[in-house]
From TrEMBL, chains A, B:
Residues 14-74 form the HTH tetR-type domain. This is Transcriptional regulator, TetR family. InterPro entries: Homeodomain-like_sf, HTH-type_TetR-like_transc_reg, HTH_TetR, Tet_transcr_reg_TetR-rel_C_sf, TetR_C. Coiled coil: none annotated. One of its GO terms (molecular function) is transcription cis-regulatory region binding.
Length: 193, 193
């Protein structure tokens, strides 16, 4: 990679980061987690591998950064003013994101390897601890508005994401938009009764 | 394996079947799905491999039989007289079963390989099509008793199993008995409101 004065600016650095993270996800889809390496990702991104070793250290750290970034971009936290609309938007975006080849590959890797590789287990649990807290803001705002009684925000997120994840990864039944909306409505009716 | 007159009776045949299915699950935990073979299972079970080829044909058919049998034995369909108690018993048994090393290994194999191997995808979908129908009887009886309005029974089963599966396989948060009961109660409140 050619050195240039621009390289040190935030813009250039952010661009390199985005290129590397996208290369990580694309490489995972192509070669699988077993064969995934910082060297292979560097080659794909057209970046010197020492940059990756210096910045991320391990492939697990890089992939965690990649899925966090993807979720941050593709699954923003809605603020429509009602809990129902916020949850419907969140679930729609989360499930659309899960259905991309890159994210689906990451999730399936996490599920199959977490029991055997502690670095993968740590990656998965770091992602979800943060993500449930971030998503939970929707529920906290609804509690503050008096829409629902106080409840563990993370559990509400798990209640609306659990059934579509279960369908997509386990039973294989079709995940339609009607199903997503019905799941949110069932949880909301439960919370309000 | 020595031939004997007893071999042809149902009792002996059922015993061989149980030995082979248990050997299949134990072998999966030990060697992983990649290295799993009818030959290895036969050796472990102390049964001639031609018996396995004749009876099951493929390792996928044998493993499907093994998880069906395990679920049939360990997750019986309760009939307590109320939907709440039936669902709580079902979810407790299903999650206890999922937490055994054998079943957890099968589920993780299904999730990681189903997108790439159609024989695995067929195995998973056969299992769940049958299992949701079997479990759904609980919901059908509740509808007949007038406990809840008509609803797709499979969706109710997915609504109560989805969140604990999500915790166990995805977020890694603790699956306590309180959480299982709260999940059932949330779904029931939703169905009744």
């Amino acid at each position: 990679m050619a050195e240039s004065p621009v390289r040190r600016t935030g813009g250039r650095s952010a661009q390199v980061r985005a290129t590397v993270l996208n290369a990580g996800l694309a490489e995972l889809v192509d070669v699988g987690f077993h064969a995934l390496s910082l060297e292979g990702i560097a080659k794909r991104a057209g970046v010197n591998k020492t940059t990756l070793y210096r910045r991320w250290g391990t492939r697990e750290a890089l992939m965690l950064d990649a899925v966090r970034e993807r979720a941050f971009t593709k699954v923003p936290i809605p603020d429509t003013g009602t809990l129902r609309d916020d949850l419907v938007e969140l679930v729609r975006a989360a499930i659309a994101n899960l259905q991309t080849p890159e994210v689906q590959a990451m999730v399936r890797v996490g599920i199959s390897l977490a029991p055997h590789e502690s670095s993968v287990a740590t990656m998965v649990s770091s992602f979800w601890t943060e993500r449930l807290a971030v998503d939970g803001v929707i529920v906290e705002r609804a509690i503050d508005r008096g829409e629902i009684a106080p409840v563990d925000p993370g559990s509400v997120i798990e209640a609306v994401l659990g059934p579509p994840y279960f369908r997509l990864l386990i039973t294989g039944r079709p995940v339609t938009d009607d199903f997503l909306v019905a799941t949110v409505d069932l949880v909301l009716s439960g919370l309000r009764s």
